[in-house]
Write a structure and sequence with these properties.
It is a single chain. The chain is mainly α. The chain has one domain (3-75). It contains two helices and no strands. The protein has helices at residues 3-15, 26-75. α1 (3-15) runs antiparallel to α2 (26-75). It starts with a helix and ends with a helix.
């Protein structure tokens, strides 16, 4: 997601070795920071969803095991 901005930022630093210290690349830096924040949020959302899916899967597995046990007891 942020790869293009990173490339632009690096290019800016290469093309402006002195003026980069005086704000030449600041706009790109701000864009890059925003992009990284968005990626962090996206990663956290994915992690939370993954955890919720895991918990749901765990509950389903427990229910299936209980049903199998119940079925096995009824067949005996």
């Amino acid at each position: 997601m942020c790869a293009e901005i990173i490339e632009e930022f690096q290019k800016c630093h290469l093309e402006h070795p002195i003026t980069k210290f005086f704000g030449e690349c600041t706009e790109l830096k701000i864009k890059l920071d925003r992009c990284f924040r968005q990626e962090d949020v996206f990663i956290w959302q994915k992690a939370l969803k993954r955890k919720a899916n895991f918990e749901q899967s765990k509950k389903l597995k427990e229910r299936l095991q209980a049903l199998r046990k119940e079925t096995a007891e009824n067949d005996s």
